[in-house]
Design goal:
- The chain is an alpha/beta fold.
- It folds into two domains: 207 residues, P-loop containing nucleotide triphosphate hydrolases (Rossmann fold), CATH 3.40.50; 222 residues, P-loop containing nucleotide triphosphate hydrolases (Rossmann fold, 3-Layer(aba) Sandwich), CATH 3.40.50.300.
- The protein is 37% helix and 15% strand.
- The chain has a seven-stranded parallel sheet, with helices on both faces. Strands 10-11-9-12-13-8-14 form a seven-stranded parallel sheet, sandwiched between helices.
- Helix 2 packs parallel to helix 3, helix 6 packs across helix 16 and helix 14 packs across helix 15.
- The longest helix has 14 residues.
- It is elongated and about 75 Å long.
Amino acid sequence: MLFSDLKLSAPILKAVHEEGYTTPTPVQAQAIPFILEGRDMLAGAQTGTGKTAGFTLPMLEILSRKPFNPKAPRHVRVLILTPTRELAAQVGESVKTYGKHLKFKSAIIFGGVGMQPQVSALRQGVDIVIATPGRLLDHMSQGTVDLRNVEMLILDEADRMLDMGFIKDIRRVISILPQKRQNLLFSATYSDEIKTLCESILRNPAIVEVARRNTSSELVTQRVILVDCAKKSALFGHLVKENKWEQVLVFTRTKHQANKLSDYLQKIGVSSAAIHGNKSQAARTKALSDFKAGVVKILVATDIAARGLDIDQLPHVVNLELPNIAEDYVHRIGRTGRAGNEGEAISLVCVDEYDYLKGIERLINRKLDRDIIAGFEPDPSIMAMPIVQGRGGGGGRGNSGGGHSPSGKPQGQKRDSARRSDSNRSEGRSNTQRREDSRGRGR
């Protein structure tokens, strides 16, 4: 199948071809016809499957089918909700790219930046709004956005929005939208909350699923390296230099650890940058831009900051610390192995994280290969210490207080004196704090 087989108009096909694409990905091939029929849709799609174009292309096509009157006032006809600023910006870029030969206007609405430019854009009239829930509610409360004419609602990465505590915000937004509209919901995982949300807003939806839920990409080689907590940074620096890695995305659980690793890498002569909740939007945008351009080799990120990052042909993802929610592991390694490219995901795992590792392996239904690097062998006498958690419940979140190795043998009673409790503190926050983030006061 070719894009030309999908009943898209000439201006959209021209933009697609100018980007070098001729063949749709599986999610695009399945989703676009349903959306063009005007049906509600639930799509289960991992990151890197082309899902953004999967809804952007048919959305633009539907908008273009109504005659354009340059003298008529513009109304918001499409609302796209995303969990993070970075994802909102990327969706906005996709709309701009594929709609460049059309006359539609769009606005990107998120926190961390001033409201006035957004207010000005909305007042001039836009057809498409891409927004994070918190900042959109700010505009709604101030009367600077009018959603009474929305024809299509798209929830992108809905599972992450619910995980971040946006469910009430989403329902508040939905409550003021017209009853008659098309609804599209994209989610990488299916929780009970997602099912409940689907039942409340989707009407006889088409179901599209291009990969088994909660699975890791088959194009990603995954392995575990066992190491003591205190040796992780040194081991990572060794791997970067030994393997001559040029582009690596590294995940930590905490903002403190992200800064600590980035500082360490700079000291040993490896260019790096960190993005997390305490970084300004401008700093995060620059760090990502420098990483994509090759100015910095290593981008160190927390889960909150990195969700939705779209980096072409990223070869390596490293978990300096395992996430305390197993599903987040799938999202992390989904940054590599995208769009048919192969990738590598390495997790540096200490004794504290063995229960997290078990939870991840249960989720992906496979046992990951364990390696030990000479010179960085884990000390079998170190006893596991509980990891302070910021979010509770779910797979892979239990404390590793039992002190067992991956082979099940008891560990000794020696403590790793180099550990600090603040490096083990999760970046997870309350729902209220996360909502504050989207309004520009934290994330």
